[in-house]
Specification:
Blueprint lengths: L1 E9 L4 H18 L3 E9 L2 E11 L2 H8 L2 H10 L3 E10 L4
Antiparallel strand pairs: 1-3, 1-4, 2-3
Helix pairs in contact: 1-3
Length: about 100
């Protein structure tokens, strides 16, 4: 399985707009993408501008398909200016 983690730092003034966009992107990914097995949205209560994603896909092809979906493209375009920093890691799930 293919694991993606993303750590966002969101401009504080955009948190109220960013979180619903991210929640919708995660929901649609889980519900409509066959290869998306998990899409967790996490936030640090002590640092609410830090948002962490944990996503699990069948394989890299499923993740690439996710990036090509209309809902992801819409999210990415809408959220781009809200993000101060973004760090993405691709990992291999060793055991489940």
């Amino acid at each position: 399985m293919y694991v993606i983690t993303v750590e966002f730092t969101i401009h504080t003034q955009h948190l109220g707009a960013f979180m619903p966009l991210m929640q919708e992107n995660a929901r649609v990914s889980r519900e409509s993408e066959r290869g998306c097995l998990r899409f967790d949205l996490c936030r640090d209560p002590a640092r609410p501008q830090c948002v962490f994603l944990y996503e699990v896909y069948d394989d890299r092809a499923a993740f690439e398909a996710h990036l090509a979906t209309p809902h992801f493209k819409a999210f990415d375009a809408a959220a781009k200016a809200m993000v101060a920093n973004k760090a993405v890691r691709a990992l291999e799930l060793v055991n489940s």
